[in-house]
Design the sequence.
């Protein structure tokens, strides 16, 4: 049985830890602290926690005001509200100003599940990575989320971290080295390379195992920083395997797949395929059911890899 | 700073000249709303606020946010005169490479505390600054000028709730109530009245004044300083384009600069002069 770690629980725990170490850390939420787990910080540091009510635009610009005054604000709500409803506030007051606001969402992608398409952000990476000055990151497990949050104490500039509702399989140990902008090779392979982020990293790891049984040696890269993207890692993978598959729980338009395609197209063209949500909105259902319905299973990733390999080899 | 009312009126008069001169030179920009708000800015920067233009980042300083960012020329003229940057910069307004962008950029202009331009956001940012000061136990007070058309933005009322909920009494907001917005009269476009009642209902201490009267502005600021446990809003009735007959009370000059001829006549009217090289 694989060990699972909560992405949002890891976020809340990390906040409570860094809050104890640095009194400039303030946390703002928009009536979802129980869901985003910023409540774990709020319990320990009620004076530095600001519930803004159901008002995401005010949430983001108030956080910018805190940052302008030298604080390190973390602003949290569901991904769709953080990046969608408050997009222009994030643009004007956070990205344009280069302020040290950390926008950390939860409930991204279709694994939100039962709440349905209205609440499943499938476009947040696209929105955030199109903003100048914005760093965009997606943790692949709870350990990586904790490392990212700790990094945010000293990091300069605006950041979007895409969290999730669900628990993810544990991939890393406590000595995992996280660096902003640095892809991590999880598995080397010579036949093809999967570049994934978030939940799709563990799904893709299982895909690599399926492929191994079929006799294919497929590599896996955790691209946890979507912007600035690690172009070196992408070009290296393209040169070694000449067959790339991307996987993210996001619309295939504008997400990790697009970011990788941009690098490949400009620097090292090779065959590729994007596994992701095929430009359609989500629906209600259990996360597990939706992962199957929206073709985000390990089998879907391995099928995509086989397609690219066959195409490359002219079969 | 012990400037008396007469001195502040003289400063405001000079700033009005700077505003129309720089707008004429820029050939675009917002004349009306810069001129309606300049008396308030004069009182804040030359009397009320604890600031040091030689040390723009002075700890515990008071802060100002121009929520109606399109009145940037008024803020730039004020900051230049206060000594934050060389007055010669005013001639570069809206030109490529200038620190003086069409709307204020905190990363380019010394003394600008928050980048603004998209209406509705300044009050939220000011709330964040004021709350941060409270956390630090700092004496900082935060001032904001909003537009009256800007009252139509939903975020203003989100921020109004926040300031009341968190008892942000180190915050004082102005509404530059000149009655006009770009498409016409505020009450005809999307009525905001009864505005004082709205702010009162949101839990704010409300003061209504003539916002082009230095003595009334100073008195209201004193009252705001004394008001504890809740934020203060000063609803400042003003004349858009105040100071010059070519633009006073005229909708057209929301976003139109004075022509060469209008500038010349305006300078004669106010008994001032400014050649481009002087600003």
Sequence:
């Amino acid at each position: 049985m694989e060990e699972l770690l909560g992405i949002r629980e890891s976020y809340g725990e990390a906040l409570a830890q860094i809050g104890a170490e640095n009194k400039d850390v303030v946390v703002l939420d928009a009536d979802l602290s129980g869901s985003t787990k910023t409540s774990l910080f709020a319990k320990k540091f009620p004076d530095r926690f600001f519930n803004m009510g159901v008002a995401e635009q005010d949430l983001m610009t108030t956080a910018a005001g805190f940052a302008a005054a030298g604080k390190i604000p973390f602003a949290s709500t569901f991904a769709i509200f953080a990046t969608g409803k408050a997009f222009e506030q994030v643009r004007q007051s956070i990205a344009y100003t280069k302020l040290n606001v950390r926008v950390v969402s939860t409930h991204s992608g279709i694994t939100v599940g039962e709440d349905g398409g209205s609440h499943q952000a499938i476009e947040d990476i696209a929105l955030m990575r199109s903003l100048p000055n914005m760093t965009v990151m997606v943790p692949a497990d709870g350990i990586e989320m904790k490392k990212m949050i700790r990094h945010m104490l000293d990091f300069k500039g605006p950041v979007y971290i895409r969290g999730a509702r669900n628990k993810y399989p544990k991939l890393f140990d406590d000595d995992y080295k996280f660096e902003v902008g640095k892809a991590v090779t999880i598995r080397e392979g010579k036949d093809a390379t999967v570049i994934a982020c978030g939940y799709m990293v563990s799904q893709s790891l299982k895909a690599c195992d399926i492929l191994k049984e079929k006799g294919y040696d497929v590599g896996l890269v955790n691209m946890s920083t979507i912007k600035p993207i690690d172009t070196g890692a992408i070009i290296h993978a393209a040169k070694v395997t000449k067959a790339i598959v991307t996987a993210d729980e996001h619309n295939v338009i504008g997400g990790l797949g697009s970011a990788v395609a941009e690098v490949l197209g400009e620097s090292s063209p090779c065959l590729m395929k994007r596994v992701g949500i095929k430009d359609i909105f989500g629906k209600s259902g259990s996360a597990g059911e939706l992962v199957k319905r929206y073709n985000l299973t390990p089998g879907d990733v391995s099928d995509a890899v086989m397609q690219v390999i066959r195409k490359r080899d002219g079969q | 700073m012990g400037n008396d009312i007469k001195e502040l009126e003289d400063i405001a008069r000079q700033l009005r000249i700077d505003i129309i001169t720089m707008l004429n030179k820029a050939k675009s920009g917002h004349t009306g709303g810069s001129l309606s708000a300049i008396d308030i800015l004069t009182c804040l920067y030359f009397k009320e606020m604890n600031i040091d233009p030689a040390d723009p980042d002075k700890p515990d300083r008071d802060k100002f946010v121009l929520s109606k960012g399109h009145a940037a020329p008024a803020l730039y003229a004020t900051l230049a005169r206060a000594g934050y940057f060389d007055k010669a910069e005013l001639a570069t307004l809206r030109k490529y490479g200038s620190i003086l962008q069409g709307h204020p950029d905190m990363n380019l202009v010394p003394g600008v505390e928050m980048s603004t331009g998209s209406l509705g956001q300044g009050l939220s940012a000011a709330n964040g600054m004021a709350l941060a000061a409270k956390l630090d136990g700092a004496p900082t007070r935060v001032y904001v000028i909003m537009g009256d058309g800007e009252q139509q933005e939903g975020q203003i009322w989100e921020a109004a709730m926040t300031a009341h909920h968190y008892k942000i009494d180190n915050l004082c907001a102005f509404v530059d109530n000149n009655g006009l917005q770009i498409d016409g009269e505020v009450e005809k476009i999307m009525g905001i009245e009864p505005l004082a009642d709205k702010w009162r209902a949101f839990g704010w201490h409300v003061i209504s004044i003539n916002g082009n009267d230095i003595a009334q502005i100073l008195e209201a600021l004193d009252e705001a300083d004394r008001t504890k446990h809740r934020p203060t809003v000063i609803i400042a009735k003003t004349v858009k384009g105040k100071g010059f007959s070519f633009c006073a009370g005229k909708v057209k000059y929301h976003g139109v600069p004075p022509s060469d001829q209008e500038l010349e006549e305006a300078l004669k009217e106010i008994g001032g002069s400014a050649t481009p090289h002087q600003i």
About this structure: Chain B has a mean pLDDT of 96. Chain B is about 40% helix and 10% strand.
